[in-house]
Each structure stands twice: as structure tokens, then as C-alpha cells.
Amino acid sequence: MPGRDKDSFINPEYFKEDFSVDAFLVKLTQDVIDSSKQQGLTTQGGRPITSEESARATIDRVQKLIQRFIQAEYEISKLGHDVAAKLVEVQQSANEDETDYKAEVRTLERVSERIKGGIRDIDARATRISQTATRVGDRLQTAEGLRLRCLEAQELISHLQAFSCHSAGEDFSKLPAIFTNDATLAEAAAVSRRLVQLAGEVAAAQQRSKAASSSGAPRAAAAKPGKAGGIGSVEHTLKVLEAYCNWLENRVVARFDAAVAEGNLRLQTQSVAIMIELDKERSIAQRWVASRPAFLAFSPEMLDDWVRRASRQPPLPPPGALKQQQQDAEAAAVAAGEPGAGSLSRSASGADPSKPPQQQPHYVEPALPEEYDIVVRQAKALSGLYKEVHASVKDDVAEAAQVFSEPGLVLEMFMSRLLEQNVQAALERLLLPSGTGMAALAASTNAIAAATAAPGADRTSNAANLTLRERARERASSIAASFSGAPTGSAGSGSAGGVAAAGGSAGGVAGSGGSFSGGGAPPAALQRQHLRLLAEAYSKTQRLALNLERVVRGVAQVDVLSMAEGLWPAFMGSYPGQELSWLAAAYQEEVQLLDSPELNLNFCLKLMAWNAEATARALKLSAPPQAPRNCRMLFHHLVAAAAAPGGGAAAAAGGSGASSEGNGSGGGAGAAAAGAAPMAHPGCLLEHLAKHIIGGVEFSLELCSVGGPASLGGLLAKMGLGGVISRASAQQVAAAFVGGKVRKALEAAHAATQVVAVLQSHYSSTVAPAVSGSVAELSAASSALLALIRAAEDSITAVLRKSVDTFMTQMERALTSEQRRSDFTPRDDALSFDKPTAACLLGTALLAALRDAAGATLEGPNRKHFLTEVSRRSYQLLLAHMTRYTYSPTGALKWKKDVNEYAEVLASFGAPSASDDMGQLLQLVNVLVVAPDSLLGLVNGSLRMAHRDALRFVALREDFRTAKVDGKTLLQLFSGEGMEGQLGQQR
């Protein structure tokens, strides 16, 4: 840009960076404005300037500014032209540079493309070279492999030729050194096995070739008859090779046996390696397993002696002494505040709300001293035997890990033989009927049963009780058949259909034939002892298997638990058939010991305790998929109804009908039973409870029947009271009647309620957790429980209804027989208002006795509803009783005294409607008491009765036909005649 003139006002630097128009104008005009400010408003003489002078000065300043702006415009225009010229010059230079740059870029791009093309050519050539090298390498490897195979084949052919030329015999010293040198026996074993395979293949190929050529050229096949089988033939070579392999195997086995005897692990390891090369690993493993001390020590004689020592019975106390010891221990436990055998504690539902809730009633089995329990002794002996097995196995496993490079096979064989030869042999002697352990178990059970039996115990029951039981069984069978939800025909291998029922043989328990010789002992006790021993043996065997598996863990993977499970089908049999058989037999034996068929809570608690014991064993002895089904069968189990008489709930003892859940076939009988309705198995808990509850209900209902020596009339006649009844004698008769008839029924209802409550608790704590693994089994068990609860509730309702009916019938008869018409029309010399009538004394005594009996037996809603119903029907009975007699004014007061007595007793019932009903009855009695003139006010006022309804009670007045009110008789007064006049007078 050309240089700026000296007089120029415009500096190009103004337009750089932070350019501002205001600042630019200030710089242009600042000197002009500053000079005008310096002149001021006065002249040099100090005289103020005039307006004309001021205007002239302003015009001068404006002229200067105009000139300044014109000059600036000119300079700016010139400066713009200079800048534009410079810009054009710079732009031309940039265009030239850009053209040169683009030309260079295009040149570089052409060069880059040529370079990339060259690189691609190099990559393609390298790829072709690499592929060629790979093919060459593969061919070289193939050639090397073929070379090695040829060398190996050449070596094998030379060895094969040596064997082919060797004469038959045991002298192999002429063979190459590799086959006779002790240092190369492992290599000799591998080579000889290859030679045997090769000779076998050649022989097979010759056979195929001969078979193919024999059809086309039979003569050629017979042209060389003498060459087959001679030295140099394939057959001869194969024969010599097999002889050598046998010789080598015998030699290695002899060395292995000597090494085992000496405890030389190095030599054993070498022998095992040679046998592995000979493909004889299983053979040498069996040889090693057979040499273990664990098998040499367990002989049949040792096991028999072990069982005898484990089953030795200590001397028992005299008969009855052991039972007395149990009772003393129970009494001591009760005195210490602990529940004893068969002890009962009330449930929380019947307790005082102010007292802390108590636990549900439960049954505790009398404990047998441990020194007399043969199951405990045999289990301890089995545990000791298993400890010896476990201790001996540790060293053998460690030795196997050193001798065998891969000890999995030998340890699996070792554990399998250990379980089969040692463990199974011990279990057979303990659990099978043919074993010495079961004979000792039966003898011990007999001895314990004799020692615990009370002297003179009577196991028989009277014929009436048996008749009631049979009747209850029939009704219980129909109820049990209605239990829904049991999945009949479900899959499963264990069938309980063939197990023995009550009193039958326990042969089905063994699981592998045979029968127990009870020797007079109760079959249920023997079966229970066997099941206890079975569970103990199973637990200890599983613990042994787990310990053995832990020993081999880290050395090899051997599933010892599965091996141990494989031992038990021979001992389990048709489980849980054994449990059902025991429960059925135990139930029948216990029923025979009951004094009467009335409902017994302690007996039901015992049944539930047995079921809990069996359920715990079923969870232990059953496979996890089968455990819910087996536990449900113990709680409720339906089987096909037996075709023969006596089937059903009781199930024929020792019957052979197939269970609906089994997989066996029952022949023609089974086919006939298949169409019948399913019945509950006699061993399941719900069947037992249904029988007992229905039997108790039947018994209590028969006790409630009207009549007999325990009826109210019979008691009055027996006590010879005649017509003279005092309060004390009335209470005595009422207590005897209620205690002999009604109280038994109420106790049965209360016991049934308790049984249902305890059963629900038992189901929640024991059964539901056991069957919760299967939705179907849980649904079946809950459905069966609900069916039994409904049946029990219906039975309880029937008992309570029957009790009310019996009581009200007897009370009505008592009131009718003891109430005299003269009681309510007494003579003046026989007036006594302070004493109720004899019928009232008897009636109130009956109500009070019933109240006390209900309070002592019933609980909760049952007691409330029972007393409410009694109070309601008592009111109806008293109302009907009132209408049977005619009342004089004094007799009405006598009747009012009786009603007050009844009201006082009924008020103690706590029924909400009792006070209202009796209050209404007292108001109604006033109809008999007031004067005739006050009757209308009473009826229309406090009673608010319709006149036609009131007429029924007004007619009971002695003066009904003679009394008049305003010239009208009472009949006319209350029948509607003359009512309009009477109402007008009242208004």
C-alpha cells in the first residue's frame, strides 16, 4: 500500500482489529471541537460575545468540519482503491499457487496408485508362495508320516516274521531281545498287541478272500490243502502271538503279585503299565482289588459272629418290672413339668383367654432303656463295622493313586466290590428274614413285650364293643371312600397292595421272601423294630458312602452314593408297604386294648405319633421324586376295593389284591376289583381316624338314646323318690342323668373337635412339608383332610343335636310327670311362695347340670351354640308347659316363682337371647297374676300382644269363665265382642 500523505487525516491503522465508527469520528473531529472549546464564550478582552459572533463562530466550525469530512471521504476512497488493488494482486498470486498445488497433488495421486498396485502384486505373490509352501509342508509331513509308518511296518513285519518262523511252544528265547528283555517288556506288550491286531486283520482278509473266490473257483480253493496252518502261515503266526501274550501276561501278573506281597509300589506301577499296553487294565485292576485286606478280613464266619455279638440280649427284669420303670420315669417327668408318655395338655382354644396359650395335646411314647433296645445295639454295631471299613479304605485309595496312572476304574471296581461283598453281606445278616440278626430281633421283641406287659392285662374286648366297632367300620369306609384327590393309578414301582394287614404275617416286610417267626410277639412290634432297624441301617450306610466318596475325592470321580443306593431294593421291597402293614397291625392291636369304643383322644394322638414316625422314615428311605407320594400314602391311600366280603376300610388281612398305585397285576380278582369303588388302605392315618371317630360317635349316639336304666325316669324309680323331691335329690338325679347320657356325648363331641384340631396341626407340621414337593400329592392330601374334617364336623353336629334332643325329651317328660295340677291351684293352707315346685327343682337341676357338663367338656363356638340352642328350646318347652295347666292367682305366683328359677339358671348359660326370652315369659306370666280389670292395660301396654294371641294365655286363668269386666266376660273381652266400647272408655 503506498505511504500516507503528511497532511492526511486517515491512518490505515484505525481500521485494524477493534475498529469503532464512534472512535473514528472522534479522532477526525477532535482537534476542531477542542479549538472551539478553547475559544470559550468570551472575547480576548473579557467581553461576552454576542449571538452574532457566536453564530459566526459556529458556522466557521461547521465549515471546518465539512472540510474535514470531505477530506476524510477523499482519503478513505483513495485508501479503498489502494486496498482493492492490493487484494486483486494477492488473489492472483493465490490462484497461481493453487493451480501449482493441484497439479502437484494429481501427480502424487498417480504415483500413489502405482505404488498401491505394486503392493497388491507383492501380496498376491506372497500368498501364492505361502500356499505353495503349505502344500509342500503338508506333503513333507505326509511323506514323513509315511516314512515312519513304513519303518514301523517294516519293523512289525520283521517281528511278525520272527513269530511266524517260531515253532509252537513256551520257549520264546529265540525271539528278538525286545520281547524277552525285562527292561523292554512294556514296549514288547505294545508291539505284540499291534502284531495280534495285524495278524487278525490279515486272517480276516484271507477269510473274506477265500469266501469270495470259493463260489467262482472251487477247484482252486482245494488245490493247496497242505499249506494251511503250518509254520509261516497266518494262522500259525496268530497262534504263536496269542501264546506269547498269555506268557507275557502270566509273567507280569506273577511279578505284580510278588510286588503286592512285598509292598513294592514301583514294581506294581511298572506291571500295571505293561498290562495297560496289553489292554488288560481291567484284569490287573481286579487282581489288585482282590488282594485288598478289606475283603480278606470279612469272612462269613466273622460276620455271623459280629451279628451274634451285636444282638446279644442283656438280662431283662421280671415281667411287669420294665413297665413299672417306664411308668416311674413318666411320673418323674410329669412332676418335673415335662410331658410324659401319653400325657395330654389342653389346646389353646379351650384355655382361659387371660392365661398364656398352651401347646396342642400330644402323645409321647414310653421310652425303652437303651441297654434293652436291640435296634440301638445293632445300629451301634453296624456303625462300628462301618468305621473299620472306612479306616481300611483310606490306605487302599492312597495306594491306588500311586500304582495306577488313572485310578478311576480301579477305585470304582474297589468301591463296588466293597459295598457288595462287605456292606451288603452285613445288611443281609441284619435285615433279611433268613439272617441271624432278624431271628435275634424277633426274640428280643418277644422278651421286651413280655417284660413290659402289665400283669393280668386283658387284650380282649366285649362283644358289644366289637359290634359297635364293626358298625363304625362300615360307616367309616363309606366316608373314607369319599375322600377326594388321591391319584389312583399313578406311576410308581412301590405297591402297597400286597402287604399284610392287621394281624397278618410280616413276611412282606422283608422284601426278598421269607417270613418272620413272631414267636408269640405282637406282629406290629416286630414290624416296627424291623423298620427302625431298616432306617438306622440306611442312614449309616449312606453316611459310610458319603465318607467313602470324600476319601476318593481328589483322586477319582466315583459316585459311591449311587452305588450304595443300588443295594437297597432288595431290602426295601414294596416300600412304603411295610409302613402301612405295621400301621394297620398296630392299629388293630391297640383297638383290642381299648376298654370301650368311645372316642379316645390319647388313642388318636398315638396314631398321629405313629404316622409322624412313619413319615419321617419315608422321607429318609424314599428317593426324592417318590418321597411326596410315599408320605401321602401313609396319610391317605386309596386301593381298589376287594371283591371278597370283608374288603373296604378294613381290607382283607393278608389279601393279595393289587394296589391301585402299584404296577403288579392281580389276575382275575384284580380285574374284578378294578371296577369297584376305591377304598382307603387299612394302614393310612385318615382311615384309622375315620374308624375311631365314627365308632366313638356311634357309641355316644347310642348312649343318648332315650330309655334304659340311665334315663331320667329310671333314675327316679331307682332312687325311690316318689313325689317328694328336694333340691339336693334333684341335683343328684340330674347329675346322674347328665353324667350317664349327655355328658358322654358332649365329651365325644369335644374329643372329636380336639382330634380335628390336632390333626390339622399334625398335617401342617408333618404331612404338608413332606408332600410339598409334588403339587398333585399336596392337593390329594389336603382334599382328603378336608373330607375327613367335614365328616367329623357332621358327626360333632349330629352328637350335639342328639344330645339336645335327648335332654329336652327327658326334661319334658320330667316336667310332665313331676308337675301336679294342684301346684297351680293350691289350697289356702298349702301356700308357700318361697319354694319352687318339685318339677321346677328337677328342671333347674337338669339345666344346671347340663350347663356344668357343657362348660367342662365343650369349648369355643360349640359350647356357645349348644347352650344357645338349649336355652331357646327350654323357653319353648316352658312356654308349652305353661299352657297345660290352669292357674289361680296364688298358683300364678307359684308359677312365676318357677319361671324366675328357670330364668336364673338360663341366664348363667351366657346365651344372648336367654335373658330376653325369659323376660318375655315373666311378662307373660303377669297375665295370670293381675286382676281382670288390669288385663287390657297389661296386654295393650307392656306386652303389646294381639288380643287373639293373648286370649290363649288369658284362658289359663281359673276365673276365665267367671270374671267380668264392665259386664263382659274375658272371652268376650279378648275375642273382639264389645272392644269398640272398651277402647272408647280408655280414650
TrEMBL record:
Source organism, top-level taxon: Eukaryota
GO annotation terms (biological process): exocytosis; Golgi to plasma membrane transport
GO cellular component: exocyst
Stretches for region Disordered: 207-228, 310-363, 653-672
Domain Exocyst complex component Sec10-like alpha-helical bundle positions: 726-966
Statement: the UniProt record of this protein carries the keyword Coiled coil: yes
PANTHER family linked: EXOCYST COMPLEX COMPONENT 5 (PTHR12100:SF0), SEC10 (PTHR12100)
Keywords in alphabetical order: Coiled coil, Exocytosis, Transport
Biased amino acid composition, Gly residues: 653-670
Family annotation (InterPro entries): Sec10-like, Sec10_HB, Sec10_N
Exocyst complex component Sec10 N-terminal domain mapped to chain residues: 63-180
Comp. bias (Low complexity): 207-226, 329-351
Family in the record: Belongs to the SEC10 family.
Keyword Magnesium among record annotations: no
Protein name: Exocyst complex component Sec10
